[in-house]
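TICKET: design request
STATUS: open
ATTACHED STRUCTURE:
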């Protein structure tokens, strides 16, 4: 699970808009459903968060301390294992992994 930044707006999950159209979520949107919080890991619609990554969702947690960056370029320093970066230009969410002392941003 990943962390929700304190300034993130968490909305109640809805499958449909009030007009009946299927609700569309953008990568990075955070929703609440059945006592849990989820982040859209890509643009998604028509899938409940319980579908997990196949439906474009990842469960998130306010207790784990993970940094989240929302920018067009990755953080230059200070990234720790599990930190996330959402590329505003491409709409892709990355996570930071480290192996044998070498770290890199990997597309989720």
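STATUS: resolved
RESOLUTION: sequence designed for all positions
ATTACHED SEQUENCE:
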């Amino acid at each position: 699970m990943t962390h929700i930044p304190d300034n993130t707006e968490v909305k109640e999950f809805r499958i449909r808009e009030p007009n009946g159209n299927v609700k569309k979520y953008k990568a990075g949107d955070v929703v609440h459903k059945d006592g849990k919080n989820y982040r859209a890991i890509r643009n998604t619609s028509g899938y409940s968060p319980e579908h997990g990554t196949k439906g474009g969702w990842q469960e998130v947690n306010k207790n784990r301390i993970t940094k989240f960056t929302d920018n067009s370029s990755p953080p230059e320093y200070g990234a720790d294992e599990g930190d996330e970066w959402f590329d505003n230009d491409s709409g892709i969410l990355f996570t930071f992994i480290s192996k044998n002392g070498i770290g890199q941003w990997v597309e989720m």
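CLOSING REMARK: DSSP finds no helices and eleven strands in the chain. The CA atoms of residues 4 and 62 lie 6 Å apart.
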